[in-house]
Amino acid sequence: MINKNNINWLLCSAFYLLFIVIGFPVYASEPDESCQGEWKVAISTTPVERSFRDRGGLWFPAYIELGHVFRRCAKAIEIEPLGRSSDRIIKGPQSDVISSLFNSDRQPLIKNGKGNYQLPILGKNRVKFWLYIAKGKQLLPGLYSSEMMFYLRDTMGVKSERIASFKYRAKPYVNAKINSYSGRWLSYSGSTIRLDMGNLTKSNHRTIDFMVQSNTNVRVKLISENRGDLVNLDSSNKRIPYFVTVNGQKRKLSAPIEYEVRSFSKEKGEVLRIHIENQASPNAMAGIYQDMMTVSLFAQ
């Protein structure tokens, strides 16, 4: 005979079991989201002007832009310089030049065991980096280029890849400034130099040093307004010749003088020296004599 207490116990047990069956969680498998989408690599061919700390290097901005799906699933970009070593990824007219890749903070990118660069994505849609050419401002004129393979990786391996090209044409250039001067006989402001030859009744020698920087050979052209004569400001028919020394030869500027000098490719530049000497004129008329000599430099 079943008593009331037993019936209650059985009902409670049946309800309890039913709760467990209905409430047991069922996990449905969701399809993996495919790590696919669009992405691109862009490398500028125009260097960005930076501060004096660059020490003559050239910095080219670059970035990788990722689609929304890649931003969530991709972990890193691996960069392989094709046919180049990892510290000379740029080839120039004569040979490979010192060059490499840096992160957005201009710190060198880490390399893996194969020598390929590693660029973390960190969940960004646009990942910035730099292509750097050491002493780029001293490159010889010509075309500089590179090809790099970019591998997009997730936790499982390579998902996609791209090839990006870089091309930069270095142009001839030349810069010049006064190297040093003596306050007694030479002064200058901007591109104008005032040279005091002193007492013209005797022969005086003066030397002007220009510090020249160039990435090629330089052609020098000298032109005298008064054709190599110092002319009296009060009486233009009173003239005193002067001479310049070029390649060891003393020459008068009765006509323009042109000559070529070797490449000034050193980082700090090299000295271009112009010697000037006036003809001694003991019977020279008193007064101020002057001429305007133009020095022009052309990168070849």
Quick recap of the structure?
Helices cover 9% and strands 46% of the residues. By secondary structure, it is mostly beta strands. 20% of the residues are buried.
Lay out the secondary structure:
Elements: H1 4-23, E1 39-43, E2 58-66, H2 68-73, E3 76-81, E4 90-91, E5 96-97, E6 99-103, E7 110-111, E8 117-120, E9 126-133, E10 142-153, E11 158-170, E12 174-180, E13 186-189, E14 192-195, E15 205-214, E16 218-224, E17 229-232, E18 239-246, E19 249-252, E20 257-261, E21 270-278, E22 289-290, E23 293-299
Antiparallel strand pairs: 1-2, 2-9, 3-8, 3-10, 4-5, 6-9, 7-8, 10-11, 12-15, 13-14, 15-21, 16-20, 16-23, 17-18, 17-22, 18-19, 18-21
3D structure, described in words:
The structure is a single chain. By secondary structure, this protein is mainly β. It is built from 2 helices and 23 strands. The protein has helices spanning 4-23, 68-73, and strands spanning 39-43, 58-66, 76-81, 90-91, 96-97, 99-103, 110-111, 117-120, 126-133, 142-153, 158-170, 174-180, 186-189, 192-195, 205-214, 218-224, 229-232, 239-246, 249-252, 257-261, 270-278, 289-290, 293-299. Strands 12, 15, 17, 18, 19, 21 and 22 form a 7-stranded antiparallel β-sheet that branches. The protein is rod-shaped, with a radius of gyration of 38 Å. It starts with a helix and ends with a strand.
Poorly predicted parts: 1-32
How many strands?
23
Order of helices and strands: HEEHEEEEEEEEEEEEEEEEEEEEE
CA-atom Rg in angstroms: 38 Å
Major beta-sheet overview: 7 strands, antiparallel
